Amino acid sequence: MGFNQAYSAYQKTNVTTASQGKLVVLLYEAAVKNLKLAAGLLDSEDNLKPGDIENFGKYIQKTQSIINELEVSLDMENGGEIAKNLMSLYLYFNSELTNIAIKHSGAKISFLIEMMSELLGAWKSASESTSNAPASTSLQNHTALNIQG
To answer: What is the distance, to the nearest Å, from the Cα of residue 116 to the centroid of all Cα atoms in its chain?
Structure first.
């Protein structure tokens, strides 16, 4: 088995055996990673080289897919104010990501990275301080979202 196959198997096992809190952490980590990759393609004047346009769009789309996954995972019935606030935040993130896809704003990407990094830190603390049960079977079998860069 080659390195890439072994690494892919490790990642799949990591996702399928993770607690719900850990899954959220993995999603935020992937979102931040993709935003950083997109930001790295912009020059100091927020321009893209012609050869980088496709990859930039790919990174932004992956981030949007992750945010969408976080949205649909919210328990709006039982989540109270936290779920409502997170939904508003996720809608804002997606609106900004759409704007970034069109206008290529490095400042906006940096702002989203900062906000998502703060949320990532909060989710890491929460997932480490509570005894989370393993994710439900429906989450474990959900393979439509590829969080790899």
So the answer is: 8
How far is it, in rounded angstroms, from Cα 37 to Cα 116?
Answer: 15
Prediction pTM value: 0.76
Residue partners of 71: CB distance under 8 A and separation at least 6: 87, 90, 91, 94
Report the alpha-carbon distance of residue 2 to residue 7 in Å, rounded: 9
Handedness of CA 24, 29, 34, 36 (dihedral sign): positive
Q: Distance (Å, rounded) from C-alpha 130 to C-alpha 3? A: 34
Reported as a single tens digit per residue, the pLDDT across 19-40 is 788 999 999 999 999 999 999 9
Measured CA to CA, the distance from residue 17 to residue 110 in angstroms comes to 32
Query: Which residue blocks in the chain are alpha helix, DSSP H?
Result: 3-16, 20-40, 53-73, 80-103, 106-129, 137-140
To which residue do tokens 């055996």 refer? 17
